[in-house]
Amino acid sequence: MLFRSPARVAVFVDGCFWHRCPEHGTHPKANSDYWTPKLDRNVARDRETDERLRREGWLVIRAWEHEDPRAVAARVVRAVRLRRARAGHRPIVDRSDV
After folding, report:
1. Hey, what's the torsion of the CAs at 73, 5, 47, 1, to 10 degrees?
2. Coil, strand, or helix at residue 42?
3. Contact at 8 Å (CB) between 42 and 18?
4. pLDDT digits over 58-98, tens only?
5. What are the φ/ψ torsions at residue 27 (nearest 5 degrees)?
């Protein structure tokens, strides 16, 4: 998910297996000659993507699939609001109560 200007926030929700979650990631024993380099490439690509986006002025937020979606959403909202405020834009109005 991307929040374009002025916030420029990129949000990724990474799967524990595919992105090697330190808490829940597993290392397959079957066909490990395939899986080990595959998972290594996924993690390397994540880091490269993060770095490229940061160089271009984006804030990168990564969440794990096991995280509470409400907590992740709150983190994203805070980040977007903060970046909008720093850019001198009006606050986002929360219309969820309307």
Report:
1. 40
2. helix
3. yes
4. 999 999 999 999 999 999 999 999 998 888 766 555 555 43
5. -115, 110
Q: Counting Cβ atoms within 10 Å, is residue 94 exposed (0-12), middle (13-18) or buried (19+)?
A: exposed
Residue 16 to residues 24, 33, 59, Cα–Cα distance (Å): 6, 20, 22
Q: What are 2's strand-pairing partners?
A: 10
10-19, 21-30, 85-94 — which is least confidently predicted? 85-94
Can you tell me whether residue 76 is helix, strand or coil? helix
CA atoms within 13 A on the CB side of 73: 3
Neighbouring C-beta atoms of residue 22, cutoff 10 Å: 7
Q: What global pTM score does this model have?
A: 0.82
d(CA 40, CA 50): 15
